[in-house]
Structures are given as C-alpha cells and as structure tokens.
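Project standup — Tuesday

K.O.: blocked on the structure for the chain from last sprint. Re-posting the sequence here as requested.
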Amino acid sequence: MGVTGASGPVMDRDEVDRALARLGAEHEAIETSLLALQDHAGRRLLEGAELTGTTKERWRTTEASVTLLWAYFDAYADALRAARAIRARRRWSSRDDLVELTELLRGESVTVAGSAAATAAAPTMAGTGRLSERFTLVELVERMNELYASSLDMVVTADAVWSALPARIDLLAAELQRTRRLAHSVGVRPGEHPSGDDLERITRALTSLREQVVSDPLAFWRPAQGSSAPGGGRPDSERYDREARALEEVRREIDAVLTVRQDAENRLVRLRDVLSRADRTLAEARSARGEVLAKIAASEVPAVSGPPTALQEQLATAAEYRRHAQWHRLSPLLESLEEKAEDELMRARESLTAVTAPLAVRAELRGRLDAYKAKVARHGLAEDPLLVERYDAARRMLWSAPCDLRVAEAAVLRYQHAAAELLVPRVPEQGGPQDRRGES
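H.V.: unblocked you, prediction finished:
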C-alpha cells in the first residue's frame, strides 16, 4: 500500500473487507440496541407521563438524544451501504475504488444534519451553533455509544424507581387504610388522639410521595459511587422508610389500645379492689387512732387522712370511658390510676403502722413483763416481796388507761433489774453457804 490519500494510506482489499465486516457487525449491534431502547417499558412510561423537576429536564434532553441517535444511525447505515456498493462493483477493486473506500471508511465522510428542535437539547450539538456535523465512521460509533449510554441510563433509572417505589407505597397505603379503620373502631380519631393525627399526616405524606415519585422518579435515585454502568445505583427509599416506621409506631399504639379494650373490665375490678383495701386500711387507722388516744398518754399520734376522693372520681371517669368505648382515653387513665392506687394503699398501710405504734410498744412491754414473771417463777422466786411489789406497779401502769408508756417502760425495767439480781447464779461451797459479811 504505497499510495496515500487525504485519509492516509490507501487500504487494500483485505483491509476493506475486514473493515466492512466489523462495521456491519457494529451496525447490527447498534440497531438491536436502538430497537430495544425504543421498546423499553421505561421509555414508553416516560413518553406518557406528566413529568416534573429533574426528570422532566433529563427526559427533554434524552428525547433529543434519541432523535439524534436515529439520525446518526441512519447516516451510519447510509455510509455503510455506500461502501458496500462500491466494494460490490467488481470482485477485484480498482485503485480508484480503494481510494474512495478509504476516504469513506476512514475519513470524515459522514455528515449528520438535524432540525433545530432535534439538536437544541442534544448534549453533543447544543451550543455549537451548527445544525450538522461531520464524522468518521469510528467517531460516529463512539458518539452513538455515548448518546445511547446516557439515554439508557435515564430510561433504566426512571424505570427502576417506578418499578420499586410506587408498588411499595401502594402496599403501605393499603396497610394504612386497614390501620385507620382499626383506629376508628377503638376511638382513635384525628383531633381526639395523637395517633389519629399521625395517621392523617402519614396519609398526606404518602399521597404526596407517590405523586412525586410518579412525576419525578429521578429525584428518588441514589447513584452508586464509582459506577459508570447505565442504571448504576438504587432507588432512594428514605422518605418511604420513615413513613413506614411512623405507621408501625401508630400500629403499636393501637394494639395497646386494643389490649386495653380486652382487659379493661378486669383492670377496673382490680383497681376497685385496691382502692377498697386502701379505704378499709384508713378506716382501721382512724379507729386505732381513737383507741390510742384513749388508752395511751403522753404520746404523739399522727392524724389520719380521709379516703382519696380524687381517685374515686377518676375511677368513675374510667368506667364512663369504658361504657362509651373511648379506649384511647381509657388506656392512659388506667395506667395512671393503677400506679396511684398502689401508692394510696401503701400510704394507708404506713398510716396504720404509724398510728398503732404506741399500742405495739405497750404490747411489747406487757409481753416482756409477763416473760420475766414466768422466768422468776421457774426459779421459785415468784413470792419475793420486792419482785411482787415491782410487778404489781408495772402491771397497774400497763393495764390502766391512759397508759404513760415512758413511766410504764421504766417500771418494767425496774422489775427486770430486780429479777436479774435475784437470778444471778450462786457458787456452792463445801459445808454449805458461807456468810462473808464479817470479812474485811
């Protein structure tokens, strides 16, 4: 190949045949890809959708790119067809044929013309001020690959979002409707319960989310880092996931209300029982206080409060909520009442203990006195004049009313000390007891 032309060395017949075979294979691959893009479900959806935002702008560019792609492909096909026609003129191509084929296959032999509408938004021709471009066949293939990749990326991305999010949103919306009906059945309504307001907010959010996903799917796409493949990434479900979690929280709240509806009667019965026991304990404390004041002198006896009327009123309100199936109001009221009722019973028990403390002290002193009397009796000292005298004095104080506990306790201690002195063990010696009073 000694001769050269405007496009460099003139190709020989073998080079021409190999180039035509390669270009033919590329032509078939490009045509298959373009037809697949034309029939892509995402592209058909984009053509029929009312788009907004980012998707609207990208689709306008993509439509122009697809139009330009077909113009490039037609020009490519025409050039390939012309080259094949030249090669088919004769079995052994002449030098002029080879020069012409070289110019066609390697030179800027392809001119692509397009309308202003088709090229204004195309990323390759916008802003150039030209309505036509000249390419070599290799450059034209590269340009078609670039346009095809960007167009396919846009179509695949939109289709991926539409395939994933609207169906999930619809399923969540159906679950939301079931939850709303269940909430209504237990009295959880907007304006009356926070969960009812949450359901209204979630409903509005899902409606708005679906509209935005349908009209602007590219706004809900998260590209993969470092990926250049068409459609590399995943749908952004953050807003959907947030509303799904919010609905789950509402559902748990409604389940709690349902549990209240099932257990309300038993819980009310238990509450009445606890408050009744608290009332009885307070009544016992008031009675014991009167007894203490009558029987115990010089003792501070704490006052006893009356029954908890506020809790009884709240209990009546709870019963009213149950009769009118206002479970959402009954649930927090029962929880509060159960805690307060237990506190009230504990307070009543503490009050009874504080009031009866002087009687417990008197009982302890009586028991101690009788225990020592029994002990000295076992040792044969029951008739000792000093013990008899001190026992009678202590007994009169403990069994008289009112009883001065401080004086009575002192009398019991005197009796104990006298008994202890007599009960000290004596050490026996040979010849019997010995009087050492005369020894010095």
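K.O.: great, moving the ticket to review. Residues 1-5, 115-121, 426-440 have pLDDT under 50 and may be disordered. The chain has 13 helices and eight strands.
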